């Protein structure tokens, strides 16, 4: 099936005007599959880390949201062990007018503002609520260990 | 090559009009003036070394409070002396200089008008009692700053200030003159858009392509997230070159059908070239100003560059001319020709044909609306209002459709075909697509 104009346009713009701190490069053999990296926001426990993600555009995109998953291990109350992300715009609040770039920006913002009241990783959220300082320290350590820039 | 020579060469060879050359910063004269300041200071025993190492002094430009300029600004060299005796506080001065300064202090004390009190920096030390004993008695004196009268530095600054106001005035004239050109051109191009002859229609499509290229070229300013803001000369130059190149390769200029279109295009290009030249000129003057201030500080050890009023330096590099003219170009001229980017469907990113206007006033192409309804999605993709399911044939926006047929006939045709194909696939399945291609 030919690639819809919308995906072509989005990809072109991502290449021509990349978002600072974010990159998204489509696979040559499958233009619906993107290698993504997101830099941890400054003054967050993820600062200094570069996180790898995979992003896939399903056949009925943009009627359904892209599928996104963290590949780099990350300690965050809204991201589980498998890298799945709990983010409203990726699920019930998806709108076909949203784009790859807006979604990736939302994910970057989620790193800057973890929300332990809407958790996906329950143990992490629990710890985040009970002892935020220690949780942030762990997040920092994981960043240093797993998300070091290559 | 020395800067002075290089600067002179650029002024002579870069094709600036004579009145621009005349208004440019006179680097050489200012440099001569610095020599005078240097001479005057060393005659007073205040050579660079003494000023920078031995003497507690301040150099201020009055008349520029809070970074803005009020009237003429006057430079003042202030030197610290003992309030009571008028003795200079610093020991390493030559005897004549000490006497000179002390006499100056006494005479100024008498008139009592030119004395500035800066004793605050010592008052805190006075209140801390612990190490009082270790302080020399001198530290307890109240310090007064007295002004050392100089004449050559005033000459330097009034010369510089005159030149800067001359440059500001020149920029105002340029802005006015370029803006008049833009308005005249807009007026002429508007006539083409009003005409309904087929020649005009044809030319409008050409103009649309030209402006589309121009806008995406981001020549003087950038809208891209990574390099937001105004471009310097080098970048603008490179962008303008790329635009002209793309223009030649992508838009065949010979296919204008009305003769005046060709003339207008030349005018449009020449406005842009003049803007670019202006940018170059401003940058050159800005560099000259910074160099001359740096030289002033280096030769005299009076440090004036950090205090130099930012408003003056910024008017010189504000790119306010390019900002004003680019704004005028886009509101008066480019807006005459609608750009397709403003009429895209936010879901499929193609022309929103045929346009359906929902109750919330958001417009989508009919194809995307059909898909949204089929999926049972009631929320408007832009505002999430529950307005999708209720939409029917009454929501077709006929005025917008007419407008699109006028301005984007090619895109309308293409999108119409695409929509029909998608409908056929809905009806007959994907096999329709392959059959269609064989035919
Ligand atoms: Zn659409
Ligand atoms: Zn809406």
TrEMBL record, chain A:
This is E2 ubiquitin-conjugating enzyme. One of its GO terms (molecular function) is ubiquitin conjugating enzyme activity. It comes from the Eukaryota. Keywords: ATP-binding, Nucleotide-binding, Transferase, Ubl conjugation pathway. It is an enzyme of class 2 (transferase). The lineage of its organism: Eukaryota, Fungi, Dikarya, Ascomycota, Pezizomycotina. Residues 2-148 form the UBC core domain. Coiled coil: none annotated. It holds the Pfam family UQ_con. Its EC number is 2.3.2.23. PROSITE patterns: UBC_1 (PS00183), UBC_2 (PS50127). The active site is at residue 86. Belongs to the ubiquitin-conjugating enzyme family.
Automatic annotation (TrEMBL), chain B:
Residues 117-138 are annotated as: Disordered. The keyword Zinc applies. Residues 1-310 form the SPX domain. Keywords: Metal-binding, Zinc, Zinc-finger. Residues 345-384 form the RING-type domain. One of its GO terms (molecular function) is zinc ion binding. InterPro entries: SPX_dom, Znf_RING, Znf_RING/FYVE/PHD, Znf_RING_CS. Pfam families: SPX (PF03105), zf-C3HC4_4 (PF15227). It comes from the Eukaryota. This is RING-14 protein-like protein. It comes from Aulographum hederae CBS 113979.
